[in-house]
Amino acid sequence: MFENADAILLARIQFAFTISFHFIFPAFSIGLASYLAVLEGMWLKTKQPVYLDLFKYWVKVFAVTFAMGVVSGITMSYQFGTNWSVFSDRTGPILGPLMAYEVLTAFFLEAGFLGVMLFGMKRVGPKLHFAATLMVAMGTCVSAFWILSVNSWMQTPVGFAINDVGQYVPAASWWDIVFNPSFPYRLVHTVIAAYLTTAFAVGAVGAWHLLKDKANLHARKMFSMAMWMAAIVAPIQIVVGDLHGLNTLEHQPQKVMAMEGHYDSYPDGAPLILFGIPNSEEKRVDYAVEIPKVSSLILKHDLNAPLDGLDTIPDEEEPPVGIVFWSFRIMIGLGFAMLGVGVLSLFARWRGKLYDWPLLHRLALIMGPSGFIAVLAGWATTEVGRQPYTVYGVMLTADSASPISAPAVGASLMAFVIVYFAVFGIGVWYILQLVAKRPHAHESGPARAPIRSAGITPGPAEGKGGDGRMDTRPQNPEVEPAK
């Protein structure tokens, strides 16, 4: 079936498929962990039960999302050794330690406090539990820090030398590698994207329940918080995205050329191509709808500034323009749609109709998946725009793959497709079942404790003393004292 296929292309498709599944879970869990920390902090500050109810409502979703993110991430590590062993061998002295730092910092931080966050509400004091929630939220951001440092170095490699066996090794300072030229922009842009992804997912759930019952206090609270995030953060993301684009123009100009659809150079001002069909054979954008000189204004802040096109780049170094062109427009379009919903929510709030305007609620519901689609479109823009390199300007994708046959890669790709859709499809279905339930007072959190391993003596049964009799001591429904 795959005998005549390109093994490298199949390996790229497999990596794209698996990382697309993986990326949506951390993008949600990063923002959701911070949202849970805000909810618990507001409960401790105001003592309003609605915040604790919402914490218990969303922490169950977080637990499932976090688990699927971890499981799908494990696969990524193995692919480096199976399909991309040459890449792993040559870049290992630089990328290996950075990824190890993620394990030693983020994973240990999350693993150390996740159990307390999920199961310790009635076992530790409220302040300690809040501290655990903060540590989990911090761990998700630390994980993003190291992974984006790795990816950014692949986009803008600096601070390295090549040893006698062809491996990339640190030349002087690790700080040059970690804080490479594109890293600060990519980190801020991605973390904000995760927050917006969570905001619109939470807003969609709140809108869904408001359409059923506009008097639901819990739906009102989560919808209001989500719309505040959309209104405040969406404009910031547009500004950060612009700065990121300018940084990309400086260090990866052909990626920006592909994003803009500029096959030709423009010596006296480049147009902004809104829509069209890239035609790489004829080196033009068919049926282009464009605004004269606006691209130069955006990228150079000058209507008449010259911009180079792909005609200055050798054909073998030209990225796939069609994918980059459209993925970039999907991301930008959804970003401005998020801004529109945020502005509309401010208008509704000003008119006192935030909870009584079905049109806004339906728009928020439609925009629920927008964050997930936007982060995937942004990832495609970044990664496909880097081609034909795995390490930009240094190591070609064609020189990075393992010496394995196309049928072997194709067989594993089919297995991944079947297993991923089955396992993660069920996981997503379960999350949808959780958020479809109406949030209410005295919301129950996760199970009181994880299942104990065989051979460990269980503690007293719930509701009973150590001798098996019913415990008649009064219980605080919110927090029990630490034992």
Automatic annotation (TrEMBL):
The keyword Iron applies. It is found in: Cell inner membrane; Cell membrane. The chain crosses the membrane at residues 15-36, 57-78, 98-121, 128-148, 187-211, 223-240, 323-347, 359-380, 409-432. The keyword Cell membrane applies. This is Cytochrome ubiquinol oxidase subunit I. It is a multi-pass membrane protein. It comes from Pacificimonas pallii. Signal peptide: none annotated. Pfam families: Cyt_bd_oxida_I. Residues 444-483 are annotated as: Disordered.
